[in-house]
Amino acid sequence: MSDATWITVRLTIELAALSTLLLLLLGTPLAWWLARTRSAIKPLAASLVAMPLVLPPSVIGFYLLLLMGPHGPVGQFTQWLGLGRLPFTFGGLVVASVIYSLPFVVQPLQQAFEAIPERVLEAAATLRASPLDRFFTVALPLARPGLLTASVLGFAHTVGEFGVVLMIGGNIPGQTRVLSVAIFEHVEAAEFEQAHRLAAGMVVFALVVLVTLYRVNRPARDSLGAAR
Amino acid sequence: MRRTHAIFRRLTVFCVVSLALCTSHSQAGEVTVAVASNFAGPMARLAAGFTAASGHTLRTSVGSTGKFYSQIVAGAPFEVLLAADIETPRRLIAEGHAVAGSNFSYAIGQLVLWSALPGLADDQGAVLASGRFTKLAIANPKLAPYGRAGLEVLKARGLGATLSPKLVTGESIAQAYQFVATGNAELGFVALSQVIGAGQPRVNNAAPGGANTQAPRGPVLPDKSATGSYWRVPSNLYSPIRQDAVLLQAGAKNAAAAALLAYLKSAPAKAVIQAYGYGL
After folding, report:
1. Is A185 in Cβ contact with B170 (below 8 Å)?
2. Which residues of B touch A190 (CB under 8 A)?
3. Fewest beta carbons within 10 Å, which of A80, A220, B186, B276?
């Protein structure tokens, strides 16, 4: 593997790992709330979470470019914070990935939480488990397969992301050139050999990840199927 | 019974009429053309002129020349390619995907350094050395002739190494334009045709032919749709961007495809092409 390829692979893994971590931190409480709430805004919140599944990446990329640009509210906010602007930076890709992969993390978690019977949590409550205790010692362990599915899908989907990173990334080696963009560039330049090497690697990666996930999660409920 | 009969009759009439429409349509001819991103603006105007002159209609796809190459090799139904370079049409001919001898230069590209901010790009390109910007957008030099030309300009100015951390790369010149238009990059190397835009291009009497050998002039904003500022890069700073058209195998038997290529060589078409800032 050449140096340039290695930088690209490492950047892709870093992006996916960091995005997945942030998604679990943000997505778990959100999924818990969605699973338990009877609030009138739940359908709206659930729809917003699912939007990236439906919207083309070009729509997300286009609006992120405008929102995070110098005239956009997000761009003005990050500049006010002294962070500069997000497009063409690794941080910008992380933000975009979190938005783009949100449903892949929140939905499996939400389904896992919804599958926990109310009486289990009530029983824990009668044993004087605080709400926080119930969440960490009862709900979270019971939702383990959902947690695994969410992590794996969040990671894999970020690795597989293309349209949004292409539109806001600027293809900078070591900064924003991730694998999918590098493959696209090879294909466009008719460098099919290099394209094949990376593309075949991606196919193998995706297959291994999914087979592992399905094997590990087999005895549990079909949370992956439910997430779709 | 009567009613179904009536419905049948109506259906028959409908079928005959639509069939007639379809046939007349195919007689008038249609040509599917792949157009390099930088030429999208002029192509839209040329399409109207072509249809008015010949009765044929155009189906236009806009994209990067590199992508079109891959698609054509893979059997895409394009009949004519207006490339952003001369190599791709030659390669398609050599590989048997295009008709030998049909390639010709329809335009010579004019590179500009453009900013959406009024007053940033000066008419000498001094802004490149000024440090008054954080990002410089460029089309991928590996894929796009305009990107390669942009790099040549930076090298000619001795700024290649200094500015490389500021470069952001679009997959085509259209994306480089987009980065500048949204303000995410303050400057970018794009085609003059993009900056002149979709408005009414003014036919520039001083420009034909000699445009590429002229000394740089101040920003000439032909209409209100063009905003910001730009530097028309003198042609001695980069190797010429010759753009060739070629008849592809899929269109070899289509009279409309041949008509389009002939139209591109006509005086009215040349006037439009020059009005968008291209040399000939």
Report:
1. no
2. 66, 69-70, 73
3. A80
Which residues span the domain enclosing A74? 3-227
Residue type, A43: P
Mutation pick from A64, A88, A180, A187 vs chain B, by most beta carbons of B within 10 Å, is A88
- List, for residues B26-80, the tens digit of each pLDDT value: 468 999 999 998 998 899 999 999 999 999 999 999 888 888 898 898 888 999 9
**Sign of the CA dihedral with B120 first, then B122, B125, and B127 last:** negative
pTM of the predicted protein model: 0.78
Contact B118, B163 (CB under 8 A): no
Longest pairwise C-alpha distance within chain A: 66
Is there a contact between A170 and B168 if contact means CB atoms under 8 Å apart? yes
Q: Say yes or no: ipTM exceeds 0.85.
A: no
Instruction: Assign residue A90 the CATH number of its domain.
Output: 1.10.3720.10
Q: Which architecture, in CATH terms, is B110-239?
A: 3-Layer(aba) Sandwich (3.40)
Phi, psi of B57 (to 5 degrees): -110, 160
List all residues 6 or more positions away from A28 whose beta carbon is below 8 Å from its beta carbon.
A109, A140, A147
Inspect the interface and report whether the beta carbons of A167 and B175 lie closer than 8 Å. yes
